[in-house]
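Lab notebook, bench 4. The sequencing result for the construct came back, and we need a structural model before the next group meeting so we can plan mutations. Quick request posted to the team channel:

Model the 3D structure of this chain.
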Amino acid sequence: MTETKVSEIDDREWEHAVERNSEPVLVMFFSPTCRHCTQMEPHVEELAREFSSSVRFFRLNILTSGWIAERYGVMATPTFIYFCGGKPIQTRVGAVFPTMLKKMVEEMVQNGDECRLRSTEIEYEISGYG
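Done. Here's the predicted structure in token form:
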């Protein structure tokens, strides 16, 4: 059996894994009861193996990390959001054609340096209300 390249994360790991990650990140928002999520998982694993040197791949269960799903407007599963510099750049919803998902990743990898250069760094220090 092949080792998985898609790591499952939760709300405690979100900031470090996605928002503060210097690499591009693709997150699959899923639900364990979602039939389309199960159908898409092998395709996401294949993409993760193919692009593991340039993109980090994660899965986030919306039932256990609902506030993150709500924060990014996830209304259906599976939802795929591509992050660059900690910011959401592209979104695909539903059981999209695997070739469309691959094209999204290819384009983001191709334009990745430009994406990172144009991203605004997010400050995480909270110093008050004003």
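The two ends are 54 Å apart (CA to CA).
Will bring this to the meeting.
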